[in-house]
Every structure is written in structure tokens, then in C-alpha cells.
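Researcher: Predict the fold of Solute carrier family 38 member 1.
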Amino acid sequence: MPFKAGLELTELQNMTIPEDDNISNDSNDFTEVENGQINSKFISDRESRRSLTNSHLEKKKCDEYIPGTTSLGMSVFNLSNAIMGSGILGLAFALANTGIVLFSLLLVSVTLLSIYSIHLLLVCSKETGCMVYEKLGEQVFGTPGKMIVFGSTSLQNIGAMLSYLFIVKNELPSAIKFLMGKEETFSAWYVDGRILVVAVTFIIILPLCLLKNLGYLGYTSGFSLSCMVFFLIVVIYKKFQILCLESALNATSPILSNSSAHEHMCKPKYVIFNSKTVYALPTIAFAFVCHPSVLPIYSELKDRSQKKMQLVSNISFFAMFVMYFLTAIFGYLTFYENVQSDLLHKYQSKDDILILTVRLAVIVAVILTVPVLFFTVRSSLFELARKTKFDIGRHVLVTFFLLVIINLLVIFIPTMKDIFGVVGVTSANMLIFILPSSLYLKITHQDGAKFTQRIWASLFLVLGIMFSLVSIPLVIYDWVQSGGSTEGSD
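Model: C-alpha cells for Solute carrier family 38 member 1 follow.
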């Protein structure tokens, strides 16, 4: 046999082979130098063992393997919980500004693209052994990768908290007015949404956020999902109870001055382009982001495999697609052009116990969900600063400071569409499009067997970049044009 490249006979003769318990003592496995010949079987086997060992050590360095215990069905429920959020309230508004056909195409596209991005994320997790998004970013891109993932996930969670508190700001005054027997037009300082959201934050949310761990609050996500299912049922039911002409007559638009205008408004539009159309795609993207939760759910899956987790993702996304589409279509066909970015706010309580019930249920659900998201953001912040040891003073100070900032944003942001728009074109785009494809391309850059898959991932990355380049300027342009005005009675 020929010499191994780069090795001289004298070097081989003087080489000391380290002991290895895994190497057989079979005489055929020992290095033999005879007449300028080397037994390459030993070197080949040894290099294979070293390669496997190094690969194992790299994976173990990221996350130690721990068997999961969660069933496939419960994992579907958990991932559906992670997908479902306040984004569902803005989808009817997105449909009203795109039309039924264009909205359907966008919803189907974002659903399929989100499933593909989960596929890329699972491949990256399998290759590196990482089960936490931040660790995956750090493993592949170092500290910058960790920072980018931290920034994207934190912005997404903060955006979700803002949208939840915005629901409190919008819906709690109406609920209190109903319980007091007052009309919607009634105004007093104690039914001012801005004052109420601050009161709720520092009387209810702050004490919950100050707990060392939230434990039982994790179960509120199930209650939150139940509330949204209840909300969908009410939306479908109200479509057949609220007449379109009645909704049109209650509108304040000067266009609705005669019956022909009313009838025109009550006809569904299939394709629409206006200044608000730009918010449709970011709103849909915001509604489908669940990527920070995918890897933790994957790590807890019983007998986990990439194929099994992909099945969990497919079922969850299909279920949420159905819920989102039904909510958007029935919400739109109830109010048509008068629909608002917070669909729930469009239903006036008055003497309607059903609306009051769903309003109160959603308010309670979002109030109890805010601390869960807040806990995640604060924990990531401490992890990033390497301040993981619990310190009561730092714990209280950071909690109070973050809640003050979040409240100021809720008070001064005009509408929920602005939250959906900003978070949708930034963190949602990063988490769905840019990060999964970038991680995948970096991990597989030397794997020639995955050339075709790399082409698709590259196109996916380009799509995410184009989405940012087009959507961000349009959202800014709409802000400038609208001058920060609120929408109707929002």
C-alpha cells in the first residue's frame, strides 16, 4: 500500500500511538511499517473514530441529550398555543385592505413558508445538537449570532406584550362601562384606557413578574387558546346576527349617506390596494411566529425525531391556518370596510352578555399571559449579561424599568396595526425567513450533497431580504402620510 500523504517512514517509525480503550488489540489493527508500506486500515479506522468523537463532543457542547416525555398530541397543542396570539385580532383588518383573493394567497403562502422555515430550523438543530435558538445562533455565528437571535426573539415577545396590553387598553373601558350600565360614549378618568392599562400593569402584572419563577402561569396559555377559540365561535355566530346595513348605518364615514352606498359597502371585495395594504403581510407574519418555542417543544417530544417534529409543525400550522382564515373571513363579512385593526373592539357590548363574556375572557387571558412573555425576555436579558445568579435588587429594578418602557409604548402607539406592522417587518421576518435560512446555509456550506436544498434556502433568504426592503419603507411612508392618526374609533 502507498504511504499516507505527508507522512515519512522515519516519522511513522518514531510515532507514539496514544492508548485508546475503544481500539481493538487485534494484530491487524496495529500500525505496521514494512518495506515502505503502512497498514492504512488502522489509520482509517482511527480517524473515523476521532471524527465521530469530535462530532459527538461538538453536539454535547451545545446541549446534552435528554429524552423527551411529551406525546405528539400534546406537542401539537403546545405549538398551536405558541402560534396563536393577538395576531388573530388583526387578520380581518388585513383582509379588508387586501381583498378575499389576495388575502387568501398571502395566508396560504405565509403558512407554507413558515412550515419550510421550521424544517430548516429542525435540520440546523439536528446538525448542531442545539435545542435553544440563542445557543444555535451562538454555535453557528458566534456571539453576533447569539445577539441577533436574542434581539429578534426579544422584540417579538415585546411586540406580543404590547399587543396584549393594547387589548387591555381598548377592551377594559368597554367592559367597565357595560358593568356600570353606561353608554359607550360615557367618559371619565376611571374608564380611560391609558389609565386602566397602567393600573392593571402595576397592580396585577408587576407582582406576578416579580415572582422568582412563574410556574403555574404556564397553564394560562391553554386558557388563552380556549379564549381565542371562543372568540372565533362568537365571530362566526355574530356574522349571522349583525346585519351589514345596520353596521353601515352606525359608521361615521361621510360616504355612507344613501342606501346605494350602503349596499355597495356590503359587497365583498376580492382584490384591494390602498395605503393600508402594506400592513397585511407583516400582520400575517406576526400571527404565525412561533420559532422561539419550536426547539424547546422539540426537545420535550417523546421519541423525538426530525420527521416527527415536522409532523407536529404541519398539524399545528394547518389548524391555525383554519382558525385564522375563519376569523378573518367572518369578521370581514360582518363589518366589511368598517373593520378595525382590533376586531374584538368592533363588537359593542351594550346589552350583549355574550360579547361581554368573550371580552372579559380575552382580557383576563392576555393579562395572565403578559408575565409569561415578560419572564422570557428578562431571563434572556440576564443570560446575555451573564447575570444568571438571582439578585432581588437587580430583579426588581429591571422588572420595573422594562414595564415602564412597555407602558409608555402602549400609551403612545396609536393603533394595533402599528405594532403588527413594525414587529412583522422586523423580528417576525428575521425569525421566519432570514435566520433559519442563514443558519442552514452556514451549517451546510461544505456539504455538496445538499446543493439543491441550499439553492432553495438561498431563495428563501432572498425573499426575506426583499420583504424587509419593500415593507419597511412602505410602513414608514404610511406613518408619514397618516401623521400618526388613529383609525376611526380605535
